[in-house]
Amino acid sequence: MAHFLLINGPNLNRLGQREPQIYGSETLNDLEQQLISFAAEHKAELTCFQSNYEGAIIEQIHAADGKYDGIILNAGAFTHYSYAIRDAIASVNVPVIEVHISNIHAREPFRHVSVIAPVTIGQIVGLGFTGYRLAILALLEKIEGRAETWKK
């Protein structure tokens, strides 16, 4: 059975309260429960982690090496400037998919650049919670060998 790690970064613990016109009214707990069930339906296990601290996210990425089959990462604002998270992703042999609830390319200019995208196998943006489900499906294809051309 595949085992994936979901990492949500800063301010995602505020889902349901933070800018509901952008992020919706569902909470982080709602998201995690939906994804745990979705993963189980696809014969996979999902472990969830959220932190507002860069170092804690880096430590989770490091610990994932050899433990998980893939990482789904919404690094929040760290996406746009954390070279430390970028380097952590590059240092492990675990495929990572970057996910964002909103379309970062259609928002403020500072959100258009992701410093972590070049070391991930893909980026899913603007599809709300559906983007996380798509990331689970993509990681399943990756580990089942149906995505051989994807890097990492």
TrEMBL record:
<feature type="binding site">
    <location>
        <position position="87"/>
    </location>
    <ligand>
        <name>substrate</name>
    </ligand>
</feature>
<feature type="binding site">
    <location>
        <position position="80"/>
    </location>
    <ligand>
        <name>substrate</name>
    </ligand>
</feature>
<protein>
    <recommendedName>
        <fullName>3-dehydroquinate dehydratase</fullName>
        <ecNumber>4.2.1.10</ecNumber>
    </recommendedName>
</protein>
<keyword id="KW-0028">Amino-acid biosynthesis</keyword>
<feature type="active site" description="Proton donor">
    <location>
        <position position="100"/>
    </location>
</feature>
<dbReference type="Pfam" id="PF01220">
    <property type="entry name" value="DHquinase_II"/>
</dbReference>
<comment type="pathway">
    <text>Metabolic intermediate biosynthesis; chorismate biosynthesis; chorismate from D-erythrose 4-phosphate and phosphoenolpyruvate: step 3/7.</text>
</comment>
<feature type="binding site">
    <location>
        <position position="111"/>
    </location>
    <ligand>
        <name>substrate</name>
    </ligand>
</feature>
<feature type="site" description="Transition state stabilizer">
    <location>
        <position position="18"/>
    </location>
</feature>
<dbReference type="InterPro" id="IPR036441">
    <property type="entry name" value="DHquinase_II_sf"/>
</dbReference>
<dbReference type="InterPro" id="IPR001874">
    <property type="entry name" value="DHquinase_II"/>
</dbReference>
<dbReference type="InterPro" id="IPR018509">
    <property type="entry name" value="DHquinase_II_CS"/>
</dbReference>
<feature type="active site" description="Proton acceptor">
    <location>
        <position position="23"/>
    </location>
</feature>
<keyword id="KW-0057">Aromatic amino acid biosynthesis</keyword>
<feature type="binding site">
    <location>
        <position position="74"/>
    </location>
    <ligand>
        <name>substrate</name>
    </ligand>
</feature>
<dbReference type="GO" id="GO:0008652">
    <property type="term" value="P:amino acid biosynthetic process"/>
</dbReference>
<comment type="function">
    <text>Catalyzes a trans-dehydration via an enolate intermediate.</text>
</comment>
<dbReference type="GO" id="GO:0003855">
    <property type="term" value="F:3-dehydroquinate dehydratase activity"/>
</dbReference>
<dbReference type="GO" id="GO:0009073">
    <property type="term" value="P:aromatic amino acid family biosynthetic process"/>
</dbReference>
<dbReference type="GO" id="GO:0019631">
    <property type="term" value="P:quinate catabolic process"/>
</dbReference>
<feature type="binding site">
    <location>
        <begin position="101"/>
        <end position="102"/>
    </location>
    <ligand>
        <name>substrate</name>
    </ligand>
</feature>
<keyword id="KW-0456">Lyase</keyword>
<dbReference type="GO" id="GO:0009423">
    <property type="term" value="P:chorismate biosynthetic process"/>
</dbReference>
<comment type="subunit">
    <text>Homododecamer.</text>
</comment>
<comment type="similarity">
    <text>Belongs to the type-II 3-dehydroquinase family.</text>
</comment>
